[in-house]
Design a protein that fits this description.
359 residues; 33% helix; single chain; 17% strand; 10 helices; three-stranded antiparallel sheet; alpha/beta; seven-stranded parallel sheet
Length: 359
């Protein structure tokens, strides 16, 4: 039986990865710090068939011990979301990049020769891929407060100023992280790529798109937009949709994300490099909010489009799923309507107040 170390295995995505691996006959060990930004303590959904160790990835001794007898690593541990403000930067960099560096150091010390999976993010791309009818594929300039305040949310062609058409983003698109979280995820990829070149270990970077599903935390700015809207509905409030609601995302169910991790462990030959984990089906944020409200039940308030914006957000980001299909045999299976209907009725995990992130 192969033993897999899952970092962050008590979290939203990590816990589903643990369940999927256990269900498929793997022995699983989890390292999770149970960070106060995500947990009040050990959650009640932990898989009894897995081994759990409360440990900080920045603690080299704990990581060395955790790697004893391990054949593969699924690295899911990270602080997620945009954070509360720029003051969160040291915490994000310390946990996401510093923790990854210590993990790789420990793998090197152990002489690790298995597979390394990194849970990465579509945030590394920044905004999506755009095409101008006259100038082909172009990269829009930065979003400005003046354009956003005027309600001009879609980026223009930087050459001619004409409207652009959004396209699916392939893995070879140049990254352009636009917030601290995104920058740390790209640095994680760079660190893992350097380790792979140095050691020959196959390292794959699964770039998750907008993941939703059971065990998402409620009432926290560190959660995804689906969780924030779901929390509002549970409290009897309308979901507040930023911009004009027309921003496109690729929503993928957490069960599909966990299955992508399973496939990455068993792909033959081993896959390496970045791979989008997405449905390939664009949905607007307003469409998602409306679907959630309708599925939540009679009397649920419809979403409210506010026109508000965050400078660090991106307008459209939808993935190409072709490489995942080719190298992993992965295709998303949970349909958006049924997945959102399930999500609208399930209880969310207790949230944690933003101030508890301070140390």
């Amino acid at each position: 039986m192969r033993r897999v170390l899952v970092t962050g295995g008590a979290g939203f995505i990590g816990s589903h990865v643990v369940d999927t691996l256990v269900d498929n006959g793997f022995a699983v060990r989890v390292l999770d710090v149970l960070h106060s930004a995500a947990h009040h303590g050990p959650p009640d959904y932990l898989n009894p068939e897995a081994e759990y160790r409360v440990a900080d990835l920045r603690d080299g001794d704990a990581v060395i011990d955790g790697l004893e007898g391990v054949d593969a690593v699924s690295h899911q541990a990270a602080m997620v979301g945009l954070g509360v403000d720029f003051a969160d930067t040291p915490e994000y960099v310390s946990h996401n990049d510093g923790g990854t560096a210590v993990l790789l150091w420990a793998l090197h010390r152990r002489g690790f020769e298995g597979r390394l999976i990194l849970g990465s993010s579509m945030a590394v791309y920044g905004d999506g891929r755009y095409r101008c009818p006259a100038h082909g594929v172009v990269r829009p300039g930065p979003r400005t407060p003046e354009r956003l305040a005027a309600g001009r949310f879609d980026p223009p062609c930087p050459a001619c100023g004409e409207p652009l058409v959004s396209e699916p983003v392939p893995e070879d698109a140049a990254p352009e992280p636009r917030n601290v979280y995104a920058a740390t995820k790209l640095h994680q990829e760079h660190l893992c790529a350097a380790f792979a070149r140095e050691t020959g270990v196959p390292a794959i970077f699964l770039r998750y798109h907008n993941v939703y599903g059971p065990r998402m935390p409620r009432d926290t700015p560190y959660a995804g937009v689906a969780s924030i809207f779901r929390s509002a509905l549970e409290a009897g409030r309308a979901a507040r949709v930023f911009e004009d609601g027309g921003q496109c995302r690729d929503f993928i169910h957490v069960a599909d994300v966990a299955r992508a991790n399973l496939l990455a462990l068993s792909a033959d030959p081993p896959a390496a490099g970045p791979v989008n984990v997405a449905s390939g089906q664009p949905r607007t944020v307003l469409d998602m909010a409306t679907t959630l409200a309708r599925a939540h039940g009679p009397g649920a308030p419809p979403p409210v489009v506010t026109g508000d914006f965050r400078l660090g957000d991106v307008r459209h980001i939808v993935a190409s799923p072709e490489r995942a299909r080719a190298v992993l045999g992965f295709t998303a299976e949970v349909p958006f309507p049924s997945g959102m209907a399930e999500f609208a009725r399930l209880p969310l995990r207790a949230g944690v107040a933003p101030r508890t992130i301070r140390t």
